[in-house]
Design brief:
Oligomer: single chain
Helix content: 40-55%
Number of helices: 23
CATH class of the largest domain: Mainly Alpha
Organism: Blepharisma stoltei
Distance between the termini: 66 Å
Largest sheet: 6 strands, mixed
Family: Belongs to the protein kinase superfamily. Ser/Thr protein kinase family. CDPK subfamily.
Protein name: non-specific serine/threonine protein kinase
Enzyme class: transferase
Radius of gyration: 24 Å
CATH architecture of the largest domain: Orthogonal Bundle
CATH superfamily of the largest domain: EF-hand
Number of strands: 16
Number of domains: 3
Strand content: 5-15%
Shape: globular
Cofactor: Mg(2+)
Length: 504
């Protein structure tokens, strides 16, 4: 690898202003999280999870592998525990990270399942990634073949394009913040750590706070005048590293590294590692490392670069008629079923979703992380499924929570996944407990109202009564776990239920 990896990793530069301590002992009780299905629970997390070995650490706290203490749940999690004493002055940073994790929804961004708060800690229950960091794998491999590197760059560009479409800039893209979900060769790539992220106005506002990690920081960030394209520069540094085995901007001191970044001086023509790369690879790196951030290629446009298209064509899948049939059926289900399936899809094993992930990316032509009416209609027509614009629009309007009438990732996967892969006892129990907000043993009207309100939806008393009636529970005021299982299993499964509701 050379001397570029001989020194220790650089820590992020962070000049975020401090914030006064909150007046309440509860730090996140006023945080808005509309658009999210992530529960915030004010209780001792050790009642619910067995925290095991440490698997990482950050500037605020440690990350541990964890198992649910509920014997019905076999899934493993990663729990990031943040001492309140460490964030009193940096509360803004923590709340920002939480807020972004609660609204992003993409297969290449780490999932947040729950948030716990007690008197001393805030705990984030996260997706456990067992494949390790890209940094570690890069040290072991030395460098990647172009086909291998293309899969990684393609995935992170998709994540960045989604973030940028939401007006979020990550600001600390580096190999340590890119994980592999499993040790498998085809594991999903996951972007993590939103502690330095920020919201920005895509039309008007440039950012001015210098943050990031020195090897990967963009020249305009060093000049305190930048926008979301700083993430693209950082990914260009990573692409160079993956393909050559060296950092593009090196030096014996931070000042020398910064000087090379500002001059955009990196080994290219005449360098054996650079000359061995394909012309397309060299072209994309040059576009990602364009020192003029106003002219630098965007994450969205980079996804359509020939170097990536040639190497990722096999990942683009066409929507099948059976997938569309499931999408259509889901529009006939009630709020309880829709909310439940959105929770459930978070816990389904990655391998069962992989093919649908490729369909989702294939439909998402503008790489925003959302599927519009026009995109779904175009995808259906390519697959030989011809539907009126109004019919496609109605499907999306019924399934989506956004007023912009577009499907997000969870909307799409929860509606199209084969229900036999979705409903099992473990997942049903997890979801039931998350819907039973007050832990009463029943899903009540108030519970469903609270969960739906997070996504901007309302449920009336009459609607809830109708849901109970559909399942023969009209004599009850809520739905217990046994009733909940019967809704999704056997003679009361969703496909039959959908048919019954559509007839009514």
């Amino acid at each position: 690898m050379g001397k570029c990896f001989s020194k220790s990793r650089k820590e992020p530069i962070d000049k975020i202003s401090k914030q006064q301590p909150p007046t309440s002992d509860t730090l996140i009780d006023k945080m808005t999280h509309r658009g999210s299905t992530v529960p915030i629970i004010y209780d001792n997390i050790q009642k619910y999870y067995d925290l095991q070995v440490s698997i990482g650490s950050g500037r605020f706290g440690n990350v541990k592998k964890a198992l649910s203490k509920d014997k019905k749940v076999e899934q493993e999690f990663a729990i990031k525990s943040i001492p309140k004493s460490k964030v009193i002055g940096d509360l803004e940073v923590l709340l920002r990270e939480l807020a972004y994790l609660m609204i992003v929804d993409h297969p290449n961004i780490i999932r947040l399942y729950e948030v716990y708060e007690d008197s001393k800690y805030i705990h984030l229950v996260l997706e456990l990634c067992t494949g390790g960091e890209l940094f570690t794998q890069l040290l072991e491999k030395g460098k990647y073949a172009e086909s291998e590197a293309a899969r990684i760059i393609y995935s992170i560009l998709h994540a960045l394009s989604h973030l940028h479409s939401l007006g979020i800039v990550h600001r600390d893209i580096k190999p340590e913040n890119i994980l592999f979900s499993t040790p498998d060769s085809d594991a999903e790539i996951k972007l993590i750590d939103f502690g330095l992220s920020a919201k920005y106005n895509k039309e008007k506002t440039l950012m001015h706070t210098s943050v990031g990690t020195v090897y990967y920081i963009a020249p305009e960030v060093l000049k305190n005048n930048y926008k979301e394209s700083c993430d693209v520069w950082s990914l260009g540094v990573i692409m160079y590293m993956l393909l050559t085995g060296n950092l593009p901007f090196q030096g014996v001191s931070d000042n020398e590294i910064i000087s090379n970044i500002l001059s955009c001086s990196y080994p290219n023509e005449g360098n054996p590692e650079w000359d061995s790369l394909s012309e397309d690879a060299r072209d994309l790196i040059a576009k990602l490392l364009n020192p003029n951030f106003e002219e630098r290629i965007s994450a969205c446009d980079a996804l359509d670069h020939p170097w990536l298209i040639k190497r990722n064509q096999k990942d683009v899948k066409m929507i099948e008629s059976k997938v569309f049939d499931r999408l259509q059926k889901q529009t006939s289900t009630n709020q309880l079923v829709r909310e439940s399936t959105k929770f459930m899809v978070k816990y389904v094993k990655e391998k069962k979703i992989r093919k649908l992930n490729h369909v989702y990316r294939g439909l998402d032509k503008d790489h925003s992380g959302f599927i519009s009416v026009a995109e779904l209609k175009e995808g259906l027509e390519k697959a030989g499924i011809f539907k009126d614009h109004s019919e496609v629009e109605n499907i999306i309007r019924n399934l989506a929570y956004s007023e912009e009438e577009r499907l997000d990732y969870t909307d799409f996967i929860s509606a199209t996944l084969d229900k036999k892969d979705l409903y099992n006892k473990d997942i049903l129990w997890i979801v039931f407990k998350q819907l039973d907000v007050d832990n009463s043993g029943d899903i009540s009207l108030d519970n469903l109202k609270e969960v739906c309100s997070r996504r901007g939806k309302k449920v009336s008393k009459n609607e809830f009564k109708e849901i109970l009636k559909q399942y023969g529970l009209e004599e009850k005021e809520g739905i217990n776990y046994e009733d909940f299982c019967r809704i999704f299993e056997g003679s009361s499964d969703v496909d039959k239920l959908s048919h019954r509701i559509s007839e009514e």
